[in-house]
Specification:
mainly beta, Pectate Lyase C-like, 21-stranded parallel beta sheet
Length: 356
């Protein structure tokens, strides 16, 4: 029987082009033995591909960053040792020192000192996540995001999330002009374990420690917020350590707030809001205040030594549950309700002791 001969002809197919994530280094002056690397963080950002990591050596980087690349990690080598500050001549354009924007997804910004002040009058924010982007902003110090000297201009935000999703965790934010951390517009935020310190008492500007507003949803938990205490006329506004205004569904839990004008302020809130297990001390006016809002639950908070009201429900508020809170030492009333009869505001299981 004749043997059949088989010949194998391999089929050659083009492999998909794959990009291997790279690690890029930045060194401001070459003193850390990083050869042939950028001295500018923005140059490395512009050269990076999705999935890359940029490691920034200790030094001072006087520049504004714009990050639009997906899945990019930008980290300081040595916590707080890479410092980003306004360029010579002051900030320009959007007035933001670090902007993560234009649908950049999955960005991590870790371990930097981002600082002002800026005497150009244009410094709007230290770090901003905006316009369809998502990011984790963690382990940073954000300092002196303000004009020099501090004035009443309503800008100067330490960390801003605008129409974006973000996790803001373990940052220190202090000496800002208007606000420490702000989440504004549609998007979801987790604001966790940050330390936010205002400039008060001050009659220069009504500062806000943490604000969630205008449709933003999320969780504010485990933060330490203090020093947002405005002593000027109330016609110029009021200061608060935590402020929820016209937001989506939000939970404010397990925060420690003290030495403020209003500890936790809620205004014009219509979506579900839970304020629970917070410790509020030494508010110059009210510890927790709910104004013209509905579907709010105040549960298990401890409020001590407020100048006026410990917990107050005011105006056109309705369907508010105030339950199992401990309130003491208030200047006027520990618990105060001036809403209309039939508004569905319920106080139950609270413990209180009036100062007088």
């Amino acid at each position: 029987m004749r043997k059949r001969s088989y010949t194998f002809h391999p089929a050659l197919e083009t492999l998909d082009l794959r990009t291997v994530p790279a690690v890029l280094f930045v060194d401001d002056d070459g003193s850390h033995q990083c050869k042939a690397v950028p001295t500018s963080i923005q140059a490395a950002v512009d050269a990076a591909a999705p999935g890359d990591t940029i490691r920034v050596m200790p030094g001072t980087y006087a520049e504004q960053l714009r990050v639009t690349t997906d899945d990019l990690t930008i980290e300081s080598v040595g916590r707080y040792q890479a410092v980003i500050e306004p360029p010579d001549g002051g900030v320009t354009g959007n007035g933001i020192l670090v902007a993560i924007t234009d649908d950049a997804d999955g960005v991590v910004f870790d371990g930097f000192t981002v600082r002002g002040p800026d005497d150009s009058g244009n410094l709007y924010a230290g770090i901003a996540v905006g316009f369809g982007s998502s990011a984790e902003v963690t382990n940073n110090r954000v300092l002196d995001i303000r004009n020099d000297p501090l004035n009443g201009v309503q800008t100067g935000i330490g960390i801003l999330v605008q129409e974006a999703d973000a996790v803001i965790t373990d940052n220190t934010v202090r000496d800002y002009q208007k606000a420490g951390i702000v989440a504004f517009g549609p998007g979801n935020v987790v604001i966790r374990d940050n330390t936010v310190t205002g400039d008060g008492p001050t009659d220069v500007i009504a500062q806000i420690g943490i604000q969630v507003s205008d449709g933003a949803t999320g969780v504010v938990t485990g933060n330490r917020v203090s020093g947002n205490d405005y002593t000027g006329p109330t016609t110029n506004g009021e200061a608060a350590d935590i402020f929820v205004l016209q937001a989506g569904a939000v939970a404010v839990t397990d925060n420690r707030v003290d030495d403020n004008q209003i500890g936790i302020a809620v205004e014009n809130q219509r979506a579900g809001l839970v304020v629970s297990d917070n410790r509020v001390d030494d508010s110059s006016t009210d510890g927790i205040r709910v104004t013209d809002s509905e579907k709010v639950v105040l549960l298990g908070n401890r409020v001590d030594d407020s100048g006026r009201y410990g917990i107050a429900v005011l105006g056109a508020s309705k369907n508010v549950l105030v339950a199992n809170n401990r309130v003491s030492g208030s200047g006027e009333y520990d618990l105060y309700n001036d809403t209309a009869a039939g508004s569905g505001v319920v106080f139950v299981g609270n413990r209180f002791r009036t100062r007088n």
